[in-house]
Specification:
By secondary structure, this protein is an alpha+beta fold. It is built from 3 helices and 7 strands; from the N terminus they run ββββαβββαα. Bound molecules: flavin-adenine dinucleotide.
């Protein structure tokens, strides 16, 4: 994510521009408060990351690259001033849908994780569903699809993105190997 301060002649501190997703340049962007534009990238999003040890900042080269890409989408942004950047990781599941469920083994332990790039926009509904599950022990029908642990997730969900799925021992190996190790 790169923060760009927009040039004064392009909206200045109070100006706005459209929220955009530019698939030709692998970026998305939106205006932020104070004359800033935030530019995110979808480059290399499928490269595995170690959530305990990943690069959280951006290099000068990456910042320059994403400013240049943003300038391709909105030409005035070629004159924007970079104000730093940061990186996060997508917590993907094999089918890119979250796991919303009660977890076995510990009373009162629930899971709402694995939202890929959709955690914010799904959160109002997810909050309601999880509240119902926690308070009543029941799930709305639509929530059943997001069951997680372990057999329903492994067998009922779309696992085509896994490289291999040896069901004996329920261990999942593939590009998500660092993140998913279901030794049950
Ligand atoms: C670059 C990027 C762009 C995104 N864009 C969008 C978007 O446009 N729209 C959208 O809807 N979603 C987007 N997302 C996804 C969204 O950010 C996530 O789905 C959402 O933040 C996940 O929320 P969460 O509460 O599950 O996890 P997190 O926000 O990751 O929260 C988990 C928290 O747990 C803490 N934690 C971790 N381990 C421990 C521990 N052992 N002990 C105590 N605390 C711990 C972490 O520090 C963190 O604060 C984007 C994600 C990324 C990375």
């Amino acid at each position: 994510m790169v923060a760009l301060r927009r040039p004064n002649d392009f909206g200045g501190r109070s100006g706005l521009h459209a929220v955009g997703l530019d698939l030709t340049r692998d970026i998305y962007l939106r205006p932020d408060a104070g004359g800033m534009t935030l530019v995110g990238s979808s480059e290399n999003v499928f490269s595995p990351s170690n959530p305990d040890d990943y690069t959280q900042g951006l290099t000068e080269r990456e910042i320059a690259h994403f400013r240049s890409m943003a300038g391709g989408t909105i030409p005035a942004l070629t004159r924007a001033v970079p104000r730093g950047g940061w990186a996060g990781i997508y917590d993907d599941t094999p089918d890119f849908h979250p796991i919303l469920d009660k977890l076995p083994g510990y009373e009162g332990l629930y899971c709402a994780a694995g939202f890929s790039g959709h955690g914010f926009k799904l959160s109002p509904n997810v909050g309601q569903w999880m509240a119902q599950l926690i308070l009543t022990g029941t799930k709305p029908d639509d929530m059943q699809h997001f069951s997680g642990w372990p057999s329903s997730f492994l067998l009922a969900r779309n696992l085509m993105t896994c490289n291999t799925l040896p069901l004996t021992g329920l261990s999942m190996v593939g590009r998500y190997a660092h993140a998913i190790n279901l030794e049950c």
